[in-house]
Write a structure and sequence with these properties.
Largest sheet of chain A: none
Number of strands of chain A: 0
Order of helices and strands of chain A: HHHHHHHHH
Radius of gyration of chain A: 19 Å
CATH superfamily of the largest domain in chain A: Winged helix-like DNA-binding domain superfamily/Winged helix DNA-binding domain
Structural class of chain A: mainly alpha
Distance between the termini of chain B: 51 Å
Helix content of chain A: 55-70%
Largest interface: A-B, 67 and 54 residues
Strand content of chain B: under 5%
Radius of gyration of chain B: 28 Å
Oligomer: heterodimer
CATH class of the largest domain in chain A: Mainly Alpha
Shape of chain B: elongated
CATH topology of the largest domain in chain A: Arc Repressor Mutant, subunit A
CATH architecture of the largest domain in chain A: Orthogonal Bundle
Number of helices of chain B: 5
Chain lengths: 207, 106
């Protein structure tokens, strides 16, 4: 399960860190960079076409963070605030259409798996029982990132922010300018696809 | 698979699967939720599907950030220092133009 996250509250340890950052503590900045840089790169990559552009966006975001810190009021978590700067920059940099919500195309739902009356044609094979150990393996983390990378853009953004970065639905709606309902639809479709791809992978494991 | 569905208002597997994110997000009204839970209690297929969704989410939550290269980190620290120098210079010039329009805090 995703840990429950609250809306607009400072994150754990934020206040301390902010104080040190404002005092000009270089170590605090390094701490901040270590904490968020990789996440920022991952989120930026869901908006722009290449790794190189994502790196530029993140660099640009850090500059915005450095400049904006004196005025940061702590009304959201540091992470959400940083992500907001990031998403704004990514959107203005992104070559892609900034606001396309693919609600009607490629929803990836498992419709073919049901009979006309809505029952399972073939019930899902059971794989959650014996999968725990293998799911914990480091290579699965890389695998799941590859699967997420194959999602359509909007689904990828929502799944990345919600399930990988652990932001709350409210934060994600706010960042991406989505309604709660649309956010949930995208999350459902994204998770459904990842589940299906994961299942394909699991099927190839043995037998 | 469920046996005979005797309740007209019982939901079918296809609906149960479509509702799973709403269920996991905790946004279902009590009565539909109770119907879904009744279905899940009866249907091994849907129960396993829900477990798979949970396993998928757990797996996504375990993605770790890649390690930052020292070069990247040093580059960003250099960015910080350059910015500070810029501020100092502005102060020395008596311009006081600290706000360069970056960031934003709304």
């Amino acid at each position: 399960m995703v840990p429950p996250t609250l809306g607009a509250v400072p994150g754990p340890g934020d206040e301390d860190l902010i104080e040190h950052l404002r005092a000009g503590d270089e170590d605090a900045f390094v701490n901040l960079v270590n904490r968020y840089h990789a996440s920022m790169l991952r989120v930026a990559s869901t908006f722009v076409p290449s790794r190189a552009v994502a790196e530029e966006v993140v660099q640009d975001t850090w500059l915005g963070v450095i400049r904006g810190l004196p005025r940061f009021e702590g009304r959201s978590s540091l992470k959400t605030w940083i992500f907001r700067i990031l998403v704004n920059r990514a959107r203005t940099t992104g070559v892609r259409e900034p606001r396309t919500v693919e609600l009607d195309t490629g929803d990836g739902l498992d419709r073919g798996r049901f009979t006309v009356d809505g029952s399972w044609r073939e019930p899902p094979i059971v794989w959650t029982d014996d999968i725990e150990d293998r799911l914990a393996a480091p290579e699965m983390a890389a695998k799941i990132q590859d699967l997420v990378a194959q999602l359509p853009e909007s689904q990828r953004q929502v799944v990345t922010l919600r399930d990988i970065e652990g932001l709350s639905s409210r934060e994600v709606c706010d960042l991406l300018g989505l309604s709660e309902g649309n956010q949930r639809v995208l999350l459902h479709r994204g998770r459904t696809r990842v589940r299906a791809m994961l299942e394909d992978d699991v099927k190839g494991w043995e037998k | 698979m469920r046996l005979l569905s005797s309740w007209r208002r019982d939901i079918v597997c296809r609906d149960a699967v479509a509702l799973m994110t709403d269920y996991l997000e905790g946004v279902m009204p009590p009565r539909p939720r109770a119907r879904l839970e009744r279905h899940l209690a009866d249907c091994d297929g849907c129960e396993e599907y829900l477990r798979q969704m949970r396993a998928t989410i757990a797996l996504l939550g375990r993605v770790q950030p890649e390690d930052l290269s020292p070069e990247t980190r040093d580059g960003l620290v250099a960015l910080l220092l350059a910015y500070r120098e810029e501020i100092e210079r502005d102060r020395a010039d008596g311009a006081g133009g600290e706000d360069t329009g970056g960031g934003g805090n709304t």
